[in-house]
Amino acid sequence: xxxxxxxxxxxxxxxxxxxxxxxxxxxxxxxxxxxxxxxxxxxxxxxxxxxxxxxxxxxxxxxxxxxxxxxxxxxxxxxxxxxxxxxxxxxxxxxxxxxxxxxxxxxxxxxxxxxxxxxxxxxxxxxxxxxxxxxxxxxxxxxxxxxxxxxxxxxxxxxxxxxxxxxxxxxxxxxxxxxxxxxxxxxxxxxxxxxxxxxxxxxxxxxxxxxxxxxxxxxxxxxxxxxxxxxxxxxxxxxxxxxxxxxxxxxxxxxxxxxxxxxxxxxxxxxxxxxxxxxxxxxxxxxxxxxxxxxxxxxxxxxxxxxxxxxxxxxxxxxxxxxxxxxxxxxxxxxxxxxxxxxxxxxxxxxxxxxxxxxxxxxxxxxxxxxxxxxxxxxxxxxxxxxxxxxxxxxxxxxxxxxxxxxxxxxxxxxxxxxxxxxxxxxxxxxxxxxxxxxxxxxxxxxxxxxxxxxxxxxxxxxxxxxxxxxxxxxxxxxxxxxxxxxxxxxxxxxxxxxxxxxxxxxxxxxxxxxxx
Length: 517
Fold this sequence. Notes:
The chain contains 19 helices and nine strands. It is mostly helical. It folds into two domains: 193 residues, Fumarase C, Chain B, domain 1 (Orthogonal Bundle); 310 residues, Fumarase C, Chain A, domain 2 (Up-down Bundle). The strands form four sheets. The chain has a three-stranded antiparallel beta sheet with strand order 4-6-7. Strands 1-2 form a two-stranded parallel ribbon. Strand 1, helix 1 and strand 2 form a beta-alpha-beta unit. Helix 9 packs across helix 17. The mean pLDDT is 96.
């Protein structure tokens, strides 16, 4: 596989996913002159003794403390060590790899004063599989993700801890085992490594890709539920959605029609039952709005991946004049708000799915189209009653997690850094909600497949009588989860269904069947 060239300008969400899963990376030669020019500017500033934040001064409240030229290297090392205050569970390796890539791409833009060797080491860490151990908690989202990035920077200088070939070891040993050497930081380089949004944007990129998969899988699950419940697709009529032209509502309705095309499980016109419950009838309106929230998050992340988001920022004009601007590009508010919006959208996706689960197991709600709790031996057996309990528990927990992290702020650094984004909390909470909704949708698929089988037996239908896309989804569920004849332990079956959802297998298979790849 050709390496992905890192220039600071063209990184996208799907590139991050590819690198996390093993695509090699290399520094694009076009980035070298920019980086070398900003590095020379830093060295010139140090030689002049000019007061420049974080280069010849202390940090935060110590911004007015001048640092002598012979102590600027010590300043950077001290910064990395003192800021490594992360706590909590370790970030997953895929998130750490995404963070490394995001930070390397920012530095490659050449406004941070870091030497090319810094970026090259970061990229070699990706290529060889050296993955720093980074605790998940400690970032306020301004000034950037300081604490988590300090743990990354520790490994760059040969300290901290890292995983290599499945083993956790001291950072210097991990580098040596991979044939790499640590770097001694020069002026500005510690600050360049720490002062940015890499945790937010790296985690956000991976979350966006999973969320896109989840939204489409939830659409497919809704179609199976509609068929199991003998619903109608009349509400997905394109004329209806043309009159309310939200693009993703229209796209969702189109996808639902394609998934359901040719289905014999749907209800034809019935004067005694002209419309379905909202969680069936309003799928395009709600799922379409959820798609909007994810699309906005992707838009923000794609921009943020290619930004200079540290401080101060170094400008060198064509004549060689140097200007250093202390500003606030490290502030994570754009990502924080986007992730909070995504949290809300994903929570609503789970709410819709859980209510469809409830309808599938409740004969009083579904008009006795299906037996109570999807069992033929109710009373002696509880059937799938408890599966909906789990979906309800997760949906309820999501409502707490959906509270906007960005609505909070707390002053730090002796009130110099007096407003923070809480963006890292927002993206971590979005990840929790995403995992919950993957499980809720997995439960819906399990219940819908059970309902389909009851409908088949009653109506003399075949699996091939399902819609063009839903037949594929049903078959994939049935390949790993059989019809449940009697009470069994459901937890392993829920997990098998969750793996189908989280891995994207159902979405990919349905898209392939419908010619959408």
